[in-house]
């Protein structure tokens, strides 16, 4: 069996739909995704925009929560945008960034047509994921101040125009603190102001992901942002591998946690469908995994720490953005190979209802783990291992 | 769409194999399970035993680790046994237990033929999962002392005979501490002695799972047992919903964590394939999910806290036991409806190799979470929520 899927594999969902009879497909989908999602009819105009501009557009209604006596439903439409870079990495920084702005602008307009309330873009959406190169210039020139950089200004204008909260994950230049860079998400309100920022808490040292060369572990903790449409948080990329990171966003009251990412097939595809969904389950919130698409080539060759020859391509970013629900079900994924906009309508009341049903927060025993973690980090910690008294080993 | 799969649905794997052309099936399986498992040829005798005694038998070789210069491979065969109860719940306690012993004995013999080194049975394997009833008698009479109860004696004899570590999850009667009950796994070495016990850390209060009526949260922490064939731990049933529980077994050095369970379709099936696999990924160890099969009916009617009429059936325990690898791939699942034995050969060296590759332990920031959890449990904790200054809400 091949080690990873190739770029011709559009999506698991499309290949199953092509080959399975309708009654079988229904059961298989139920087995794969749970009972939570049905198709959401999107506006004709949005569909025309998607066709004209060649991006994948999918809409789902996520299992609507049961009716409560004392709280009205809290229906919101959340969305994810995934895209490839638009210009070669040899183009100027400004040219590359502007082209991506224009591309994302098309999808933001479609999101507005789909009555989206909150949308999140992919990690470092304004630039190629150049950290594979370990070169600083020109790549760090994509970094911008969080509160008034060109991408924040660009999105703030759209956020206000469309009455839409926009989460903008960028490479941040922190001029107030020695010009360091951070991997940061900027939370822009539906009135166009920046509500705040949150930084990537866990930084990879894996293969081509040399990000620790560029920025450190985030220092913003696990902030949750209260927007007009619900409490949101952002777990950036590699942080999805750390369940304790997802957990703390839940502790701080998040109802929707976005996971803007950039990850490639041979490395992480078997993990992708699992991690955000597990977080939605364990923390009784909605989780949104977003991954870029396409293959990015760089001007100078680089090695990947795997003994293989130097090369110029990063590998295939496989898209497959999806939304998982606190009841454990999930939407289908966007395309593995095309830009896309994923829209889901959900009732945030489902979060508390799932907390009440499953009781995970009640049974979480954080006191036990606060103590266990505190002991485990001591230099003289001894693992709690019981040896077999009968063993001669 | 129906809310849950019915009992005619044998398994996702069998239905896909039935309907998809070979080349498509290969890609779909790669997408669903990752590249990690290939078929393992099992002994003819074991296959004959499975056929004669009508249980599902499946064997896989899990991606063998790369060759290291300074450590030899550590190949072990691990196994899971899932089964239905064998007698009506109206039969005597001893009759019910003995019938299950006999059934499991058939599968243990087959496991021996498959050269299994470590096998784990399902949660409370000696009894029906009677906690739905909230009745104490006769159900608590299935409880037995961990070190010398009838089921421990029965398994200790087989463990020695077969040179096989057996993990035996039972309802424990703790005579030394006021006759209380616990939900406990007994770790029996391949020489037939009890290495130790470990108890269920998180107790559900969900639907028919009235377990908190019978026993409290476990007081054994996150022990890991050093056996002749590797370091193992046991995360019992509902503990799989808590990633911080899985995490602490990893901190204590587990290479294989078993998750013996009893869970039913309409409640948890969308979660089942996610949680143990996520744990294997996040903690760089092998994780084994084991679930009982069949529908259990009880003599007296009970209600399920869902407003529906009283009834006597628990619902469908959907089996589907599987093994997940630290590289994120997984084996197919056993049948949803038949008893079964799942065997996998793995190289425990893969655990450290995945730690080195992904670096999750290095980047875990347990210091941050020890502090965050300690603060979060304070009665006056305020969630870290950033409000939108422009909001009039």
From TrEMBL, chains A, B:
An example molecular function term from Gene Ontology annotations: beta-ureidopropionase activity
Pathway: Amino-acid biosynthesis; beta-alanine biosynthesis
Pfam families hit by this protein: CN_hydrolase
Enzyme Commission code(s) on record: 3.5.1.6
Domain CN hydrolase per the UniProt entry, residue ranges: 76-348
Keyword list, A-Z: Hydrolase
Reaction it catalyzes: 3-(carbamoylamino)-2-methylpropanoate + H2O + 2 H(+) = (R)-3-amino-2-methylpropanoate + NH4(+) + CO2; 3-(carbamoylamino)propanoate + H2O + 2 H(+) = beta-alanine + NH4(+) + CO2
Family stated for the protein in its record: Belongs to the carbon-nitrogen hydrolase superfamily. BUP family.
Protein name listed in UniProt: Beta-ureidopropionase
Organism listed in the record: Rotaria sordida
């Amino acid at each position: 069996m091949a080690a990873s899927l190739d770029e011709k594999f559009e999506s698991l969902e499309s290949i199953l739909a092509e080959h399975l009879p309708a009654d079988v497909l229904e059961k298989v989908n139920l087995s794969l995704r749970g009972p939570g999602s049905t198709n959401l009819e999107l506006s004709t105009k949005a569909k025309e925009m998607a066709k004209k501009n060649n991006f994948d557009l999918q809409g789902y209604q996520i299992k609507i929560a049961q009716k409560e006596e004392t709280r009205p439903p809290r229906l919101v439409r959340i969305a994810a945008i995934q895209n490839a870079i638009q210009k070669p990495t040899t183009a100027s920084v400004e040219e590359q960034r502007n082209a991506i702005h224009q591309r994302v602008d098309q999808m933001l307009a479609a999101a507005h047509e789909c009555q989206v309330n909150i949308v999140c873009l992919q990690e470092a959406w304004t630039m190629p994921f150049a950290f594979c190169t370990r070169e600083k210039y020109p790549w760090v020139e994509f970094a911008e101040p969080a509160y008034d950089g060109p991408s924040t200004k660009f999105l703030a204008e759209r956020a206000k125009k469309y009455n839409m909260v926009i989460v903008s994950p960028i490479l941040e230049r922190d001029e107030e603190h020695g010009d360091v860079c951070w991997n940061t998400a900027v939370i822009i309100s539906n009135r166009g102001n920046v509500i705040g920022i949150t930084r990537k808490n866990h930084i990879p040292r894996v293969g081509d992901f040399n990000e620790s060369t560029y920025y450190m572990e985030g220092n913003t903790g696990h902030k949750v942002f209260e927007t007009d449409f619900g409490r949101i948080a952002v777990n950036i990329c590699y942080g999805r591998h750390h369940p304790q990171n997802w957990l703390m966003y839940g502790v701080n009251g998040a109802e929707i946690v976005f996971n803007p990412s950039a990850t490639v097939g041979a490395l992480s595809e078997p993990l992708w469908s699992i991690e955000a969904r597990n977080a939605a389950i364990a923390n009784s919130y909605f989780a949104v995994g977003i991954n870029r698409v396409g293959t990015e080539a760089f001007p100078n060759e680089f090695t990947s720490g795997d003994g293989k020859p130097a090369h110029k391509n990063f590998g295939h970013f496989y898209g497959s953005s999806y939304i998982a629900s606190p009841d454990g079900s999930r939407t289908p994924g966007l395309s593995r190979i095309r830009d896309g906009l994923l829209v889901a309508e959900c009732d945030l009341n489902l979060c508390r209802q799932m907390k009440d049903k499953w009781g995970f927060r009640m049974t979480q025993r954080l006191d036990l783990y606060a103590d266990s973690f505190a002991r485990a980090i001591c230099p003289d910690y001894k693992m709690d291992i019981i040896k077999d008294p009968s063993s001669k080993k």
